[in-house]
Recover the amino acids of this structure.
């Protein structure tokens, strides 16, 4: 079966996010003063061939832990769904 995974990788809340801070500061320049606390991360979409949903989720989790996210500095969440 083929599955689609949607992964979000974000910097940990305890760490500085210079890109997010710059965007937050720029919000005032475009008249959006009420927007605050912007954090910038990555969104990754990938496809997995697996025997089951659980197996696909395990593969995606391993990909995140081993390659896609630096767990010292980033957290990740993901969802996996079958592709028709």
């Amino acid at each position: 079966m083929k599955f689609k995974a949607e992964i979000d990788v974000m910097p940990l809340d305890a760490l500085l996010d210079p890109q997010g801070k710059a965007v937050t500061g720029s919000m005032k320049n475009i008249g959006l003063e009420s927007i605050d606390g912007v954090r910038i991360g990555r969104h990754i979409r990938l496809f997995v061939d697996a025997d089951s949903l659980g197996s696909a989720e395990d593969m995606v989790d391993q990909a995140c832990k081993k390659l896609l996210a630096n767990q010292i500095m980033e957290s990740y969440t993901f969802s996996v769904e079958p592709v028709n």
Summary: The radius of gyration is 16 Å.
